[in-house]
Design goal:
Organism: Citrus sinensis
Order of helices and strands: HHHHEEHEEHHHH
Keywords: Ion channel, Ion transport, Membrane, Transmembrane, Transmembrane helix, Transport
Oligomer: single chain
GO molecular function, one term: cAMP binding
Low-confidence stretches: 1-15, 21-35, 107-117
Largest sheet: 2 strands, antiparallel
Distance between the termini: 98 Å
Protein name: Ion transport domain-containing protein
Structural class: mainly alpha
Number of helices: 9
Strand content: under 5%
């Protein structure tokens, strides 16, 4: 009696009931077109929340101003608290979006028949990049700098903490802007009838956003330049290089 070994794929025999179960698992509701269309209807809300959140990033540059009477720098605590709360609330919309997107549009591996992912590697890489960019764009980095780093950076290190805040805001602007553009693209594709009008409004809002952010950054750099001039004048007058121009440091 001879024994022949068949491949593992031939050993598995699917009954009609198991085949129906396999098809039901593969075609899960989270990847169905109807759920995708219903989810795309909310994209405009997420675009508006994302635009408002990015607009608040530029306003963080206005939390520092000059006290002309005492000739020192003041941190506007009320404005800072308001911006932190508003950005956290608006970013929570993006966190919900990232969570829903991860559970509805990430390719599902088909481990039952061993064929791997239903989509190509390039499509999966694109979806993974969008998901990673969404996570990076909602990280509370400015909030962490303001409430964890700035209180510990006293004296001459205060301006270093503010420079760190500037770097964080500028570095996070690009992924947040890319995220907003991705959301707008999805929203515009789901409503093709108003694509031209929506595109015009979006580009106008982008112009306002960039203008506001650039003006706020210019204001912050002007404040830093004034403090540098103060330090140079103070050094010529015999002051210590570790003296602070932050009003709360007396």
């Amino acid at each position: 009696m001879s024994c022949t070994f068949r491949p593992e794929t031939e050993l598995v025999q699917y009954s009609p009931s198991s085949r129906r179960l396999r098809n039901r698992i593969i075609s899960a509701p989270r990847n169905s077109p109807s759920s995708s269309r219903s989810f795309d209807n909310w994209n405009l809300i997420f675009v508006a929340a994302c635009w408002l959140s990015i607009s608040l990033d530029g306003s963080f540059f206005y939390i520092l101003y000059i006290d002309d009477y005492r000739k020192c720098l003041v941190l506007a605590k009320d404005l800072t608290f308001t911006l932190v709360v508003l950005r956290t609330v608006l970013d929570s919309f993006q966190i919900v979006y990232v969570y829903i997107r991860a559970h509805t549009h990430v390719p599902v591996p088909d481990f039952i028949n061993g064929r791997g992912f239903h989509t190509s590697k390039w499509t999966f890489a694109k979806k993974f990049f969008c998901l990673l960019n969404g996570i990076v764009s909602v990280l509370p980095l400015p909030q962490a700098v303001i409430y964890l780093v700035v209180p510990k950076m006293r004296g001459h290190k205060f301006l270093s903490a503010m420079s760190l805040l500037k770097f964080v805001l500028v570095a996070q602007f690009l992924p947040r802007f890319v995220r907003m553009y991705q959301l707008f693209t999805k929203a515009a594709s789901s409503s093709g009838a108003v694509h031209g009008l929506a595109s015009g409004i979006f580009h106008f809002l982008v112009y306002l956003l960039v203008s506001h952010s650039f003006g706020a950054l210019w204001y912050f750099l002007a404040i830093v330049r004034v403090s540098v001039c103060w330090r140079q004048a103070c050094l010529h007058a015999g002051c210590s290089s570790h003296d602070s121009f932050y009003c709360d440091d007396d």
